[in-house]
Amino acid sequence: MNTAATAAPRVHPDATVHPSAIVEGDVEIGAGTTVGPGSIVLGTVGPVRLGTGCTLVAHAMVNGPITIGDGNVLYPNVCLGFAPQDLGFDPQKAGPGCVIGDGNIFREGTTVHRGKTNEPTRIGNRNYWMTNTHLGHDGVVGNNCIFGSGAVIGGHAIVEDNVILGGLAALHQFVRVGHHCFISGAAGVTQNLPPWFMATAINVAGSINIVGLRRSGASAATIATVRWVYRMLYRSGATPQQAVEALRERADDPLVAEYIEFIVTSKRGICHGSGRATRGTIARAVKGEGAIEALG
């Protein structure tokens, strides 16, 4: 027996549910929450918990199992908690669902799918999801992230705190994006992107996120360390293994230790550098000196 389907909704006396909204099954709506016109809240597959002060502007859809914290805003055509886009997954199976924190804004057309393994799809606090963004099943998103219109995140991906994805950016399933990363519009990654780095093209860690560093109040020492790590990885001419050994020489620095951990635990490898030519390489190639080496 599906207890979620047979349970009755519980609506706090201070909540507002529009007459045209549909609220069914095991649903709990907290104080001060507004369920706007045409919205659908379904606790028939699994329970739905809406915290205090949430707003479903209009025609938003929520499907359990899902827990949504306080102060979240769902604009029209937002769909949260529906089944994974996996042909082998039974959409009537509850699975672990979704867990969403506080103060998130989901603009028009955002979709977030529930988990299909042992852990729910998770979203932290104060993230801004612009129009037509997507988070796949089993994804994990931290806090204070911004996702530009059309940005998509594949299943099982991990996005750490303070990440920005430009419009139409894409993350492959299972990738990890470190905190304070920036992914340019229409770019994407199929490999992991270490903290404070910028993806300027597909799988290209083209620079460090210097604007993000400065806006965050990072010290001059922190910025210098991030620059040094980036140079070791992408500008020193060292192989990845050699670069990690160079980083280990400063492993007593917590920031450097964080980079080492990120790199050595990566199952997908990390993004490569821009392949910028060394000084004089292009000039030598034009003159015919070492052209094979320069252009190969």
Structural commentary:
This protein is of the alpha/beta class and 296 residues long. It has 2 domains: 3-174, Hexapeptide repeat proteins (UDP N-Acetylglucosamine Acyltransferase, domain 1), CATH 2.160.10; 211-296, Up-down Bundle (Udp N-acetylglucosamine O-acyltransferase, Domain 2), CATH 1.20.1180. The protein has 7 helices and 27 strands. It has helices at 3-6, 210-215, 220-234, 240-248, 254-264, 281-286, 291-295, and strands at 10-11, 16-17, 22-29, 34-35, 40-50, 55-56, 61-63, 66-68, 73-74, 79-82, 98-100, 105-106, 111-113, 121-123, 128-129, 134-135, 140-141, 146-147, 152-153, 158-159, 164-165, 170-171, 176-177, 182-183, 188-189, 197-201, 204-208. The strands form 2 sheets. The chain has a 16-stranded parallel sheet that branches. The chain has an 11-stranded mixed sheet with strand order 2-4-6-9-12-15-18-21-24-26-27. Strand 26 and strand 27 (204-208) form a beta hairpin. The longest helix has 15 residues, at 220-234. It starts with a helix and ends with a helix. The model is unreliable at 280-296 (pLDDT under 50).
The helix tally amounts to: 7
Outline the biggest β-sheet: 16 strands, parallel
Report the β-strand fraction as a percent range.
Answer: 25-35%
Extended strand count: 27
The CATH architecture of the largest domain comes to 3 Solenoid
**The first-level CATH class name of the largest domain:** Mainly Beta
CATH superfamily of the largest domain: Hexapeptide repeat proteins
Number of domains: 2
Named CATH topology of the largest domain = UDP N-Acetylglucosamine Acyltransferase, domain 1
Shape: elongated
- C-alpha termini separation: 65 Å
Radius of gyration: 23 Å
Mean pLDDT: 93
Low-pLDDT ranges: 280-296
Helicity range = 10-25%
Helix-strand makeup class: alpha/beta
